[in-house]
Amino acid sequence: MARTCQADDALEKQFEALLKQQAGPEVGLLVGKHATGAKALLYGTIKTPSQEQLEPIVVAGGAGPPAGGQAARRRAGGPAAGGGGAAVSLEVEWITEHARQVARMLPGGLSVLGLYVFCPEAAYSVAAPQLCALLAGLAAACLSPTGTATTAAGDAAAAAGGDAQQQQQHQQPYLLLLHIDSTSRKQALRALPVSTSVSTASASASVSSLRPVELKFAPTLGSLVLLRCWHGVDLALPVPTAGAAGGGGGGEGGSGAQLRRQLAALVAAESERIRCGVFVAAGGSVPAESAQVGEALSCPSGSGSGSSGPLHVPTFDLTFLAPPRCLEPQPHTSAEAAGAPASQSQTQQAAGLVAVGQARLRGCLQGLAFVGKREAVGRAVADLKADLLASLSARLDLLVEEAARVSEQLQEEGQQQEGQQGATAAAAVHPLLSAPTQLGGAAGRCGGCDVALPRRVLLPWLGGGLALCDYLLEGEPSEAAAERARELLALQAEKGCQVVVEHEMPPAAAAAAGPWQPNVVAGEGLQGGGKAAGASSAASLSSRLSCGVTMAASLAVAAVASAVGLLSLLGQPAGQQPQ
Amino acid sequence: MVDCAVRVHTDGTVGHQLDLKKTPSFNEWLKGHRILRCELPVKLEVVEDGSTPADVARQVAFGHVLRQLQAPGLAFLVHPGPSGRAAPLLLRPEADGLVDSLPGTATTAPTSASGSGSGIDVVRCSPLVDTTQLASPPGGLLFTYRPLAAAPGSGPTATATCRSTTLRLDALCYVRRDCRLGAAAGALSRGIVRQVQAAQRVLEKQDGKVLPVRAHHFLPPGVGHHLTVLYPALLDDPERNDDRLVAARQRLHALLGLPPNRPLLRSANALDLAAAAGGEEGGGGGGGGAVARLRDVHVGLAAPGIGGTVALIQGSYEYCHYLQDRFNDSGWGCAYRSLQTICSWFRLQKYTSKPIPSHKTIQQVLARLGDKPPSFVGSSNWIGAIELSYILDDYLGVTSKFLTVNRGADIPSHARELAAHFATVGSPVMIGGGVLAYTLLGVQFNELTGEAAFLILDPHYTGGEDLKRIQQGTWIGWKRPGDNAAAGGPLFVEDAFYNFLLPQRPNTV
């Protein structure tokens, strides 16, 4: 059975315009959804932008058409053209990195389907092997394990509906390659079977394995709806002494990065809970997996109420139910998971774990998924669940990346200042990368740290018919997301439209300050007792970095929820900077 | 038998008379009900920080668990049965509808000795909470680290000991089919909370140790409903753990009026509510035979018409005979097989979960005890009633009584003693002595005429596991003095010497 790809008809006009302009060669991402069966839905494209004046694709010499000529000549030293053919140079690393970043910015239900290239035929035939290798390299980022699991779950749900055989033929994941010929105006779409395992990724990719895919244009975006849910998290784990932390499996910093591992453990535990969760429709019932989204989840809450703002898509708010926190997650696979670890933990229990403190993750995140009206509910809620999981791990990744960056920067500064005041240099690391003992501090012993996880914002796309996402780090203003949207996604503010939609807000209130008292039952009065300190909406990165001992934490001022506060923690009152 | 009943109010006044209806049977009654079952692997984390007493720390830990399970709006997801295609249903406190509408499976409880019946309709539920109750939107995620509060007089760094364990709770709840779903959810919640509190009481008796606790369901004979008992895991090995818990079981037996020498509440007695029909208990004996042994082959045989009383074996056994387990012992293994039948009875009465010993195991035990030389292992030598008593003692810890009869012709005069054994102990009896070995499963004795008949299970059978053939060939059958054995020849040789081995029940529960 031939594969088909249904592209939104707006794309037809977009490609026409591209051909009419005959601008320089272009490469970019295809964004859409792998539908059930052999079908893919293409919603939009995101052009890979130039990075530091470096174009992602440059076509040099070769056949005379004006297309790309000027752009190519701007750069000297392109690869030499083969006799009469074109020479193409692709910024493979940048294209891959861009795809990775965009994949992280996609809400549930959307994925990077592949690449498009706009260039002359001659250039395409030269570049095709390179493009195939590039696609194979993208597989890991674009067809994430959670993504494929989603598809599998959705397929299983669809299979329950009857067409099981059809599903099985398409187990092999694939990415698409669309060539828009700038000379002949032909559009050719091909599929490349890829493997998500990194080791075999590039080995199998070759031009010969490309298969043609039928491309047709039809209204597609209009059938989308947005599923939304809030998920509240409140998990705590005891923090073991550095020695008991299992020898620091990461090898990086030993006990130093212990809090990062604690956060990772919390995220892993929460992910397990999310996997066991269930979505409930507005009416209070669990929708049947095989029903269609549009029918099962009646009465969209979005379009009328205006809560979706600049998004023009019917919105369904679901309630997410998860097992109580005190329950151990049910093992997925019956025998082996139940047997071995249980006995192991029993021996651990006998010894007990020596803890020096408590790590806690608390707050809300929003799950989002764009799904088709006629999709099966089973697949749709699997997309939404996958989005919660992906979003949670994306936040963790971003925060860890940021922590590493901040620490590096601090260390550099520390070295510069070492002549004057060498004392502070030692402590100059991000709290996530430090050991609990460093935070406990000989100074006050009631230290600790508060670190807000990145919060997700929405970037309306394609006239509000879809949205992409971005994450704002603690203290980052929404303009930062708008800026990145312009740079990475080429999103322009449409008139009268918000560029950035914020649903998630900074953490409402920090956990009660003061040390962990495991056997003191907190009274209600202690809730929200965190004293809001120096508030300023301009809590900038630089001021945060200048906090000598890095106890950066944001506290929302109780009254002004949107204001981002800066609090140096109790152990370090002197660290509070005038802002 | 009660003829009438009245309602008594709390102030002592007598209200109207109640209309009593007799319940036909537990299974009959259960048809009007459904059983909601909620399995909960609860993680309990006790933090001892040195400043609070251990029992307070434990109370706090249970408090955390209880607060989560008592949270308003706790809902239960009802799992559709394997065949059910229906959407999963949510059992909420405010839910409408009747319990009858719940999806579920009519799981068949394993046919155990207690005759728990079949067709119990169990609805599996698992608890869920609306996660926005934990943290309300739209506040984002915050990671916090708080060092432990220093205990007075402790070192520079405060440390606490976290002991965590799993309470494998499992609540059952009978609800009438015409009960509202909301009320059913409430009943299940209360059942869970009660069980958490029960688990707390179990752990309070463990000298401050934080042990795993597991819930087991039982349906002992004579008890009109399921019993759920929580046992702590003192030892990893379930059999040894059961041995350690004997005092607790004895108290329960006394409390419930259960016999003091019948194991009914061991973890091996527990019902497996999830098991599909035909779940073989205990993994089918130790022999590893491809074909399952027949059980209770005497059922359906008519007692001979001599009048008087019949005393039979109590409980199930497996018929062990020649050539089973692809092992050729024809001509010498009859006593071994009789021993295996006796062991199967002890297994099925839950006194042990040890496998039925093979011929080699039996010979090894005798060699180890010094009763036989090492060369005995692997031989085809006969054993007798005395050897059997050694093995029962060593392998199962079972003591035996002997009844010695000097002449086969005198056996009927001991029928009264043998009948008394079946009436009180009820274990299978091995007939040994000078000749072939048999297993005795019952006695009929007429006091007036002095006539007696014996229910003989013959281990010399070499055929397949075919009940009809076994019964027709009188490999199991009532025999009267003078009757021939199934293989031919007189059953009791007139002037031969006989030893009856009467295994006793261990005085345990």
From TrEMBL, chain A:
Keywords: Coiled coil, Membrane, Transmembrane, Transmembrane helix. One of its GO terms (biological process) is intracellular protein localization. Residues 389-420 form a coiled coil. Residues 325-344 are annotated as: Disordered. InterPro entries: ODR-4-like. GO terms for cellular component: endomembrane system; membrane. The chain crosses the membrane at residues 549-570. The keyword Transmembrane applies. The keyword Coiled coil applies. It is found in: Membrane. It comes from the Eukaryota. Belongs to the ODR-4 family. This is Protein odr-4 homolog. It comes from Pleodorina starrii. The gene is PLEST003176.
TrEMBL record, chain B:
GO terms for molecular function: deUFMylase activity. The keyword Protease applies. The keyword Protease applies. Gene3D superfamilies: 3.90.70.130. Residues 309-484 form the UFSP1/2/DUB catalytic domain. It comes from the Eukaryota. Residues 161-273 form the UFSP2 second domain. PANTHER family: UFM1-SPECIFIC PROTEASE 2. Belongs to the peptidase C78 family. This is Ufm1-specific protease 2. The lineage of its organism: Eukaryota, Viridiplantae, Chlorophyta, core chlorophytes, Chlorophyceae. The gene is PLEST011572.
